[in-house]
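writing this on my phone so excuse typos. first protein, seq and then structure
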Amino acid sequence: MTWDWSAVSDFMPQFWDGLLVTLQALALGSLISFALGLVWALLMRAPSRFVRWPVGVVTEFVRNTPLLVQLFFLFYVLPEWGVTLSALATGVIGIGLHYSTYTMQVYRAGIEAVPTGQWEAATALNLPRVRTWQVVILPQAIRRVVPALGNYVISMLKDTPMLMVITVLEMLGEARLFAQEHFQFTEPLTVIGVAFIVLSYLASLLLRSLERRLVR
């Protein structure tokens, strides 16, 4: 087996296209998972069990079914119900929804880690419940869970190749397309592997830097 640098050069335009799609899916999926995970966590603390029970059922179902199955369902079943989305939008929603059930648990742990004295102080100051959450509880809870949320970003990055099954041409999708067209698999797949290593490493460095800032 010989390494063909010309194949790498030919693949690079498709690689950059795939990288852009991967980063878009990662960024938007992360935003959905962070926002929706916080909503789930807050709803699970609702006084009414008629709120907690449906949320618990939904999140357990999503967390305990494969992401791949969920992507297929969103992409192929929803159009039969009149809901048609682009492949990328479907992938972003699928990743965001799936990982929101994990970030929910992270937020829950962060909220429960806030000292009881903070709740008592807010009560003593006669702060409204919404205000207590906004200025006392959530700032402390989120600060505690940033490292764990960052780990899920890296996990989402490594799951973006699954979007290839619903026709999203992210990095691996572009590599597969190039390999099938040119009958050269080693070079594009190696480039993609290195790209994922570099992206994951950069993300971990950013996470450590953010963690150090929050600890100060």
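second protein below, same order as before
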Amino acid sequence: MINNEDFLDEIGDNHFSSNAQNPLRADAFDITDEEKIEKIKKDVENILQTLGMDLTDDSIKGTPNRVAKMFVKEIFGGLNPAKQPKASTFDNNYKYGEMLVEKNITVYSTCEHHLLPIIGRAHVAYISSGRVIGLSKMNRIVEYYAKRPQVQERLTMQIVQELQKALGTEDVACVIDAKHLCVNSRGIKDIESSTVTSEFGGKFKDPQTKREFLDYIKLDTQF
């Protein structure tokens, strides 16, 4: 009989996700950000005290509040739908019908299994079916979905799905190449490896179009 705790550890150590959406409770936003900060602050204080840290020391006494604000306002701010960027689109008046690629978008996310950083680059492309989106909005969409406890596969899919919805086309692709500090700094401690994930929609499923995109971002990985 498999111990449930061992089973859950195995999921986390192997970086599997049990949910294609971020697993949020229905009451996730019943309290304010300020109330969340106060609750998390007390939890961080308890963790540090349990570890034996002296919270009267000037260097660490402000850490619980800093961590709580960082969680709510920064690295997990993408959980709040109120912070979702407005994906404004415009008519493709100049009739540009080729692939548009925004590459090397910085990704800072957090592994939901160990709450350690995921750091890498996202490469996003689309082919207009009549609408175009501002370049900075593509970066903001990546940032919004990255700022939550994540698995890289889910993040890749969410970026594509959001752009498909905004642009009204299936012709969207995303590749993410990132390092996971839960792999690099603990467990196997492999500092060289990175993880590459991809999601190809519409015309990007065609091998020639897919290859053109991968050539643009100079990625030799075969999909």
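The two ends are 37 Å apart (CA to CA). thats all i got for now
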